[in-house]
Amino acid sequence: MSSLSIIIPTLNEEKCLGLTLWSLNLLKPSPMEIIVVDGGSEDDTINIAENYDITLITSPTKGRAFQMNDGAKLAKGDYLCFVHADTLVPHDLVTIIEKTLHNEDIAGGGFISLMKGSKNTRWGTSLHNYLKTYYAPFLFRPYLFFFKGLRLLFGDQVIFCRRSDFWQCGGFDANLPIMEDADLCLRLVAYGRICLLNRVVESSDRRVAKLGSLKANIIYLWIGILWGLGVSADYLKKFYAEIR
């Protein structure tokens, strides 16, 4: 039996959630459980989730980090995998993660994120996101990059780790409205390497489609630089509006 718990934070995700849950229910082998943690959706998200064989809870506090921690508290699996509601994963996700974490030198990992829409594949943005996994820790945390195996992963890369390590390092920082995923990597690396697997997940291009490629990539780059320099996440959130 699988030891993987999949956790999905949601907030007004009626456009994407159905396809994501449908694809997760086709995984072979199946995960131990799929937990959807809603942050107070006002659209049809809850009704969509209830149509699938998943565990659905409502978080008392809206916020991705808070919601993912709530899901992790409920999870029974030895391994945790955090999937955004607009992301599609490989059919053998469970096997990939369990095989990777069988290596005790690895504390966690993620996938190459390919940003796609109904009409476009955002190759440039996807390439930048791939490179950012490496250049961000190289520039801002070189010691951890070279000697500890740090890679900075972001939510659309489907972060996974051991449940024990997740709680030992404190889980997601619920006080962070943004960059909670990169922050987790910084603390998780104390328990082993963070790896980027040579497998692809597909994420919605809705932010790039709304803002335009140039503006979106400038915002991504600007946020990354300021975060690396220690600027507070509350300030950075001003540049990262919610887009559904």
TrEMBL record:
Give any Gene Ontology cellular component: plasma membrane
Coarse class of the primary localization is membrane
Q: Which organism is it from?
A: Crocosphaera watsonii WH 0005
Subcellular location(s) of the protein? Cell membrane
**What are the alphabetically sorted keywords of the record?**
Cell membrane, Glycosyltransferase, Membrane, Transferase
Q: Under what name is this protein listed?
A: 4,4'-diaponeurosporenoate glycosyltransferase
Out of the domains of life, which is the source? Answer: Bacteria
Keyword Flavoprotein carried by entry = no
Q: In which pathway does it act?
A: Carotenoid biosynthesis; staphyloxanthin biosynthesis; staphyloxanthin from farnesyl diphosphate: step 4/5
The free-text function statement in the UniProt record for this protein reads: Catalyzes the glycosylation of 4,4'-diaponeurosporenoate, i.e. the esterification of glucose at the C1'' position with the carboxyl group of 4,4'-diaponeurosporenic acid, to form glycosyl-4,4'-diaponeurosporenoate. This is a step in the biosynthesis of staphyloxanthin, an orange pigment present in most staphylococci strains.
* Protein family (similarity comment): Belongs to the glycosyltransferase 2 family. CrtQ subfamily.
Sample GO molecular function, one term:
glycosyltransferase activity
Q: Which InterPro entries match?
A: Glyco_trans_2-like (IPR001173), Nucleotide-diphossugar_trans (IPR029044), Trfase_2_rSAM/seldom_assoc (IPR026461)
UniProt key word Lyase: no
